[in-house]
Design a protein that fits this description.
Layout lengths: L1 E14 L2 E9 L13 E3 L6 H13 L1 E17 L7 E16 L12 E8 L3 H4 L3 H16 L13
């Protein structure tokens, strides 16, 4: 069985008195079907999971973000619907990230092969809007973390130790 190790991010931003989260709408093989997901991707050789999460967020959403904390890992199986059709065991490490700079959906032309669009959604609504169970759980964990770390509501809050 094939194994894949990826990393992704729940990138949050405080706007208009509430938390917002960056989500992506992946390009799917069925153009009539759309889903919202978290930005994520394979970890490159020599790269840490946290570095990969920050890179994937930048590539897939257009925004630069800073690491706050690791949220958790999700594990699942899927069957490739391209190429060899193999069954894959996948582990994705998710990190809570804070928006630092950039404009949502400002992604490269090459990235449009993977990402139809990136957008801000209210963090409170994310558990209902994200398509995948494990990613909905990561949004809930992000909400819980932020509720326990109210100092992060300040515009330029220092990163927790």
């Amino acid at each position: 069985m094939v194994r894949e190790v990826s990393a992704g991010g729940v990138v949050v931003r405080r706007m208009r008195g509430r938390w917002w989260m960056a989500a992506i709408e992946p390009q799917l093989h069925d153009p009539g079907n759309s889903v919202l997901a978290l930005p994520k991707g394979l970890i490159d050789p020599g790269e840490s999971a946290a570095e990969a999460a920050v890179r994937e967020v930048r590539e897939e959403t257009g925004v630069r973000a800073e690491l706050i904390s690791k949220l958790d890992d999700i594990k699942y199986f899927y069957v490739r619907n391209w190429g060899d059709g193999q069954r894959v065991f996948k582990v994705v490490s998710f990190f809570l990230l804070r928006y630092a700079a950039g404009r949502i959906d400002d992604v490269s032309r090459a990235m449009r092969e993977e990402v139809r669009r990136a957008l801000w959604i209210p963090l409170d609504a994310a558990p209902e809007q994200l398509a995948y169970r494990g990613e909905r759980e990561m949004a809930l964990r992000a909400r819980q973390y932020l509720a326990q770390h109210l100092e992060l509501e300040a515009p330029h809050a220092a990163k927790p130790a």
